[in-house]
Amino acid sequence: MRYMIGAAIVFLGPTFGRIAPNLIGLSDKVSQNTQYGIIYLILIGLILLDRKHSKNFGPYILILIAWGIHQITFNILFL
Description:
By secondary structure, this protein is mainly alpha-helical. It has helices at residues 2-9, 12-24, 28-52, 58-77. It has one domain (2-77).
């Protein structure tokens, strides 16, 4: 289930990527990094929730690391 949640988080990117530049007026790079921030907050919240209930939160950490690598790669390639 946790990996399925991680796969569903991928759909936040295109959604926020179309809303932020058009409605809010953010640049592409700022909206992309804001998207990463929202994803990190969601994943950290899920990690804390699973830790509180003594459940396996390892998949969320793996997904968080993958998104971190994705953000670093994005910012290096589009400087």
